[in-house]
Structure prediction request, 251 residues.
Amino acid sequence: MRKIILLMGLVSLVSLMGRTVLAADVASTYKVADNQAVFGDILINSSSGFIRTKIPYDNSLFGVLVETSSLIFRSGDPADKPVVQSGTAIVNVVATNGDIKNGDYITSSETLGKGMKATRSGYVLGVALSEFSGSGDGQISVAVRVEYAELTTTRNANRLLELLGSSFLTNVKDPEKFGQVVRYITAGLVLLVSFGFGFITFSRSLPRGIEAIGRNPLAKNTIYLSMAINVGLIAIVGIMGIVGALLILRI
Prediction:
């Protein structure tokens, strides 16, 4: 009986410790490439490393640079800095979208590294646990959890357009990625035009050929040959479109 009681107590203790760890502010250390970033700034993981965000509702939101945390997983490099991705953290904010109240969603802003009140659907850093009002910047406590928050739009085509727009703006920051996006768009347009031309031509020539055979059955062989030539030309146009798209992607 005593062993059973001890076992139950041990299970309860482990469960309590597990809940405590899950509820704690957990941070991992990373090499922050932005030397101007200060504690409380919102970071993104970009191609150049961890830097401060400057795009509202940034879809690359990663976490918050903190001075300390309840639990820190260190990489071994003393120069690496702790970043909170889950838990409570002090975040630098501005009142760009108005006063921040307890319970408001917090997202990134155009001010480097600073958060603001989210007023529309988009990616958010988390939920405010304190308030901020007035001009300039300040600090609030935020329950950090990066996610897409539905505030003004439903889960439909509007959300898809917002996600595409956000991704496009993110790529605009990197000239190499922007050029890649332009190449993909151009290649897609070339394919669309070539196959569209082929479809329209085929849909027009086929009924006319059938109608011509009905009017003049004796010339059906000639009509078949003409239709075959048209199909061949359409196939050539389609192949040229594919080749052109591949060449554009290789530039």
Residues 3-8, 10-23 have pLDDT under 50 and may be disordered.
